[in-house]
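Blinded run. Sample ID left blank on purpose so nobody reads anything into the name before looking at the predicted structure. Input follows.
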Amino acid sequence: MNLKIKKAIENIIQGKLVAIPTDTYFALGANGLNPSAIKKIYEVKGRNYSSPIPLLISNQNMAENISKNLPDLFFKLAERFWPGPMTIVVDANDKVPFIVKSKSNKVGIRIPKHKVCLEVIKKTNFPLSGTSCNISGMNPSKSHDFINSNYTNLVDFVLEEPCGIETAPSTVLEIIDNSIKIIRYGAIKKEAIKKHLPDIFIY
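Blinded prediction complete.
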């Protein structure tokens, strides 16, 4: 295993924050099931506690392990668009700390299409926080040089590997009564979802 990846994994297991490359931008990676690690993320980003933290996972089993009441439509979306830049908001179960899901009792999850990021998730064996590595309100970055120059105060370690090719953030959606609500438009367009699920109402 790459020494940089090994160090990133060690930091995350210790409850520290790591800048992790994804298929979109660098994420502020931490153990998504560790409340104190997630609290650090809110603090260093200056993020509002009412904004839930999305989680990056490595496989569908991990999705089922942290959620409940997954509808058939979830599996149809996951089969077509994962790994990839689609975040699906689902009902979180009790394994997900309150600080992650906030009052909504929901959590956004996705499997990133990025070999290094997936390796880190698999080796730590828990979901990673997927919020962008930046100060809230600032633009996300695909450059580890930029992270090193501007955000070393946010993280304990920067995993210096390239991000993927996506130039937009993930598309965020939620399944409501067998229809799809797009919460944030991103890399996957509404038309692509409609083409895959022509009978489903998308708004």
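Unblinding after everyone has recorded impressions. The chain has a mean pLDDT of 96.
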